[in-house]
Write a structure and sequence with these properties.
The complex is a heterodimer of chains A (258) and B (320). Chain A is built from ten helices and ten strands. With 258 residues, chain A is α/β, with parallel strands linked by helices. Chain A has two domains: 6-91 and 172-251, Rossmann fold; 92-153, no CATH class. In chain A, the strands form two sheets. Chain A has a six-stranded mixed beta sheet with strand order 6-7-8-3-9-10, with helices on both faces. In chain A, strands 2-1-4-5 form a four-stranded antiparallel beta sheet, covered by helices on one side. The radius of gyration of chain A is 19 Å and the shape is globular. With 320 residues, chain B is mostly helical. Chain B has 14 helices and no strands. In chain B, helix 12 packs antiparallel against helix 13 (284-305). The chains are: A alpha/beta (258), B mainly alpha (320). Chain A binds chain B through residues 52, 54, 73-76, 78-79, 83-86, 90, 92-95, 99-100, 102-106, 108, 110-113, 115-116, 123, 126-127, 130, 150, 152-153, 166-167, 170, and chain B through 174, 177-179, 181-182, 184-185, 187-189, 191-200, 206, 252, 315-316, 319-320.
Chain lengths: 258, 320
């Protein structure tokens, strides 16, 4: 078995007296679609913030592609290929929808003053390519008719889709999605899911996502990690996790629809 | 000829508006595009003006080289100000910048061996020895006058506005590049920008430094126009004039800055014609403060009826 793309070891993160993440360890296999589930307050979002560099870990380590990334600035982690979305979508409201996606283009020479001033031709070529790719992604998430609107006019669900297009624009190798399906209409959600599967097959992208819709989790993921009270309490295939008594206890009577 | 119809008077208003355009354009880059609350912009103006004057008088340096040094030093000051402060929350950053500009003003007031002290640049060469940094500029201005067959005021007006409009055009073009896109995104949501792999700190620093350079260029023209200045010319009020201009014209666009500066300049100069009742009851010094009241009223009115400024974008204002 190859080394995991993401390895989290004994991570602790407290807020005052509350141990939001309390010694969590997990592996994400390269090329997998892994779901991170657990009741509210289990520490999923905090763990996302620690892994993506938005919160420092107090203890423990995080390795991405066999390199330590704990203590690394969030933007550097993103540059290395680990890109996340937020639970509440972060549309840049006074920019156009297209600009929102274009912003995520990686290694764009036009984002450096030196590139703009000294290599205008190369910058224009970069921008043309980025524009083409951004338009493809907007078509994919069915936002093409809003391409030139301000992102601020989009609904909550549409902003989720914009976040997704943006994160894919960044050409990540590992994508962390925080409740990607919340507020997205189910038909479109299903299409997105198919696209995620396609991306994994075509480009070997790895996905780790937090999701409350257990139907989606069971259908889309090949591995499920269950958190409760800041720790990982179970890991396995959807079928294994579903019958795990610790998981059922954690959810306390939650019914598992199939 | 009455003042209101004289070319000399209105060209003076125009020259000052051109200087304010450069000065306020820096605030537009910093706040209007990158979202930085810089309340210390006047410091960069002061650094530009003082560096140029000191190097010319004390070091006998060529004025153009001294002017370039002034801009460079202001940019360096921008870096030094930004390095420890740009990671602060927006409101704390704002407080630090105003402190920065006041510290520099007090230093300029008290370091009289370097700056001439509170008496201003007239004492640059030492007390009792009148000094002048402006002769090279005057001879350059003279050449422009003779070359274009125009008067001194017109030559200054053309020079200031040429530089100001070039700067506005440059910033306008810069904001259309991917670099400008990152700046505007930072104004919207820093964390989202960082999550996409952009070094937010570095971009904020660049915006601060570009704004500092524009402030310093404004300072150079200020020094050339008035032939004399003192630390009190760089009081915080001037920074807030720049803010008024940016708010009057409209946030987040380069071309609104000259419009705001002209409107501001005309209101500011125009109130001196308030010589009818009830203003005639005030003496002339008191009347000078009326213009601040007028500008205050205009801004309040604008916030009520046209919050986006004269040429700002209403649609952008109402988005969440």
């Amino acid at each position: 078995m190859t080394a995991p793309i993401l390895a989290v070891r004994d991570v602790v993160r407290r807020f005052g007296g509350l141990r939001a993440v309390d010694g969590a360890s997990l592996d994400v296999e390269r090329g997998s679609i892994t779901a991170l589930i657990g009741p509210n307050g289990a520490g999923k979002s905090t763990l996302f913030n620690v892994v993506s560099g938005f919160l420092p870990a107090e203890k423990g380590s995080v390795q991405f592609e066999e390199r330590r990334i704990d203590g690394t600035a969030a933007y550097r982690i993103a540059q290395r290929g680990l890109v996340r979305t937020f639970q509440v979508p972060r549309a840049l409201t006074r920019l156009s929808v297209l600009d929102n996606v274009l912003l995520a283009a990686p290694n764009h020479s036009g984002e450096r003053l030196s590139g703009v001033l000294l290599r205008p031709a190369r910058t224009r070529a970069h921008e043309r390519n980025a524009r083409r790719r951004a338009q493809e992604l907007l078509a994919l998430v069915r936002l093409e008719e809003h391409t030139h609107d301000y992102a601020g006019v989009l609904s909550g669900g549409q902003r989720k889709l914009l976040d997704l297009a943006r994160v894919l624009m960044a050409e990540p190798r590992l994508v962390l999605l925080d409740e990607p399906m919340a507020g997205v209409n189910p038909t479109l959600g299903r299409q997105l899911l198919e696209h995620v599967l396609q991306l994994r097959a075509d480009e070997g992208m790895t996905f780790l996502f937090v999701e409350h819709d257990l139907d989606v989790v069971m259908e889309a993921s090949d591995r499920v990690i269950v958190m409760n009270e800041g720790r990982v309490i179970a890991t396995g295939t959807p079928a294994e996790v579903r019958t795990d008594s610790r998981v059922i206890d954690a959810y306390l009577g939650a019914t598992w629809s199939t | 000829m009455s003042t209101i119809a004289s070319f000399g008077f209105w060209s003076f208003v125009g020259i000052v508006a051109g200087i304010y355009t450069l000065f306020a354009l820096g605030v537009q880059v910093q706040f209007g595009f990158a979202g930085l609350l810089n309340f210390g912009q006047v410091a960069f103006m002061g650094i530009g003006a003082y560096t140029m004057a000191i190097l010319v008088v004390k070091e006998d340096l060529n004025m153009w080289i001294a002017a370039c040094c002034g801009v460079a030093l202001a940019m360096l000051a921008g870096v030094l100000l930004g390095l420890p402060t740009l990671r602060l929350r927006a409101d704390y950053f704002a407080i630090t910048t105003i402190a920065f500009s006041e510290i520099l003003r007090y230093v300029a007031t008290n370091e009289d061996r370097l700056t001439g002290g509170s008496q201003g640049t007239i004492n640059l060469a030492g007390i009792g020895r009148t000094s002048q940094y402006n002769s090279e500029w005057q001879s350059f201005l003279g050449k422009v006058e003779r070359g274009l067959h125009i008067g001194g005021d017109a030559a200054m007006l053309i020079l200031v506005w040429t530089v100001a409009l070039l700067a506005v055009t440059a910033i306008w073009l810069m904001m259309k590049t991917p670099w400008g896109r990152v700046l505007k995104s930072i104004r919207e949501d820093e964390e989202a920008v960082a999550s996409l792999g952009k070094n937010v700190f570095s971009y904020k620093l660049q915006a601060l430094v570009v704004g500092a350079a524009l402030g310093a260029i404004a300072g150079l023209f200020y020094a050339w126009q008035f032939s004399f200045f003192s630390p009190d010319d760089f009081a915080p009020l001037l920074t807030f004039f720049a803010w008024m201009i940016v708010i009057l014209g409209g946030l987040g666009r380069a071309w609104t800055v000259p419009v705001g500066a002209i409107v501001f300049g005309v209101i500011f100069a125009g109130t001196r014609f308030f010589d009818f009742a009830p203003f005639s009851l005030l003496d002339s010094t008191e009347r000078a403060y009326v213009r601040l009241i007028v500008i205050g009223v205009v801004i309040i009115g604008l916030m009520l009826f046209r919050p986006q400024g004269i040429f700002g974008n209403r649609k952008e204002m109402v988005l969440e």
